[in-house]
Q: What sequence folds into this?
């Protein structure tokens, strides 16, 4: 361990002790929750050692844990809460739906209006609804297979697209499980996945057309689609290189395969129209969730009408709660009343201020890292050079993140529990909130550099 790592370890030990002393209610709730939920949490992503911080309330840009500690929220529900907490427009829409009927298992006028807004904003011809990002990517892949008559799919090394079997491969592989750079391994993230599923899922690196080209030359007539996050957000933030996304589309179409964007995280966060707007490449299909529904559990996927048309000719896609009036009302209000053009101008300003402040702090104290500014999203990655792919992520310093997390929490900043995640800024954040983040981060960098 180098001197920086030694200092990070000492900081982590002291800050974690202080955090545990402030969260006895979370510890007690965790011990209670273990009796009713595996790992004491409703989703494994929420687990933390020795226990997660349990929240009680959110308002505006702040959250309060069960011990009453207030923190400015830069976690924001893994990117769902770009609207902030309890936004009046979203609350009004949910209240109206609650009073007039939250569910009918029948189409409604607000569902149609929400679908129209999604098509307009993201450049899709038709959409269908789901209830989570996992459901959206699962349905999009099925539709792509139906449209092409093919069974095999391609995904990106180190990307997460939900927890259905066909994409639970090469999500966070260790260096001993990755395979060669030119032939990444299809290694399952989870137990319980039939071995045969791996035969139909193939892995290629991000920002690399050569490996994909070789795979398509070998078996392009069997590939239905490639699904990818146009901006990788499972390892911090990795942007596509100029020409990469268009190159993917051209290569895939040459072999009769489809391009599917997973915009569950990037949709409505990196720009009003997501990655399609920011990078100027329109996929055949795209998937959206998280930020589009104002903190309610909804999702959608869509794209070309001829591809989506397979749903009417045999490709099954259904769900009792799909497009229900509660979620549709919240989503419509989010996209038309809250996440307006002015809101994105405001978010861009806050995001740039935050990323520049973090970058300056690292430069002044000689901390090996870089900051990424991407609309409502951004991050610090502890590697001097920007990442190009998953293997670059393995060169980052998780020990520095593990020290920064309790440091931030103890200074009133609520962050995502994991160095692979990002910050999310909401429309209810203020300059003072950004300054609070920068101030604690400057202090952390200074402590590391001593």
A:
């Amino acid at each position: 361990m180098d001197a920086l790592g030694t200092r990070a370890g000492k900081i982590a030990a002291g800050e974690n002790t202080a955090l545990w002393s402030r969260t006895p209610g979370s510890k007690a709730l965790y011990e209670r929750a273990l009796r009713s939920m595996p790992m004491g949490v409703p989703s494994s992503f929420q687990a933390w050692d020795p226990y997660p911080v349990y929240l009680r309330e959110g308002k505006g840009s702040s959250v309060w844990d069960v011990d009453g500690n207030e923190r400015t929220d830069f976690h924001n529900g893994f990117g769902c809460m770009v609207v902030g907490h309890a936004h009046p427009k979203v609350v009004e829409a949910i209240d109206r739906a609650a009073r007039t009927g939250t569910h009918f298992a029948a189409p409604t006028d607000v569902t149609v209006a929400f679908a129209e807004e999604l098509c307009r904003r993201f450049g899709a011809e038709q959409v269908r609804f789901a209830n989570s990002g996992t459901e959206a990517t699962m349905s999009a892949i099925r539709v792509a297979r139906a449209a092409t008559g093919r069974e095999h799919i391609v995904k990106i090394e180190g990307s997460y697209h939900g927890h259905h079997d066909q994409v639970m491969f090469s999500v966070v592989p260790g260096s001993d499980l990755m395979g060669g750079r030119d032939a990444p391994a299809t290694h399952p993230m989870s137990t319980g996945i039939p071995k045969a599923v791996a035969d139909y899922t193939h892995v290629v690196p991000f920002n690399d057309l050569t490996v994909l080209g070789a795979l398509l030359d070998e078996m392009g007539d069997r590939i239905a689609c490639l699904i990818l996050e146009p901006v990788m957000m499972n390892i911090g933030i990795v942007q596509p290189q100029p020409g990469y996304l268009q190159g993917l589309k051209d290569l895939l179409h040459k072999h009769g395969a489809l391009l599917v964007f997973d915009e569950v995280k990037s949709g409505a966060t990196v720009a009003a129209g997501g990655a399609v707007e920011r990078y100027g490449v329109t996929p055949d299909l795209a998937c959206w969730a998280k930020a589009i529904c104002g903190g309610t559990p909804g999702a959608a996927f869509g794209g070309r009408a001829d591809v989506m048309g397979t749903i009417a000719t045999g490709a099954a896609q259904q769900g009792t709660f799909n497009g229900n009036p509660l979620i549709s009302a919240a989503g419509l209000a989010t996209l038309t009343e809250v996440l307006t053009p002015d809101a994105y101008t405001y978010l861009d300003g806050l995001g740039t201020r935050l990323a520049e402040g973090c970058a300056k702090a690292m430069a002044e104290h000689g901390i090996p890292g870089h900051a990424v500014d991407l609309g409502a999203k951004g991050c610090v990655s502890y590697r001097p050079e920007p990442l190009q792919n998953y293997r670059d992520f393995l060169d980052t310093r998780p020990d520095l993140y593990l020290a920064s997390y309790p440091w931030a929490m103890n200074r009133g900043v609520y962050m995502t529990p994991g160095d692979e995640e990002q910050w999310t800024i909401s429309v209810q954040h203020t300059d003072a909130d950004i300054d609070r983040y920068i101030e604690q981060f400057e202090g952390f960098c200074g402590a590391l550099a001593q």
In short: The radius of gyration is 22 Å.
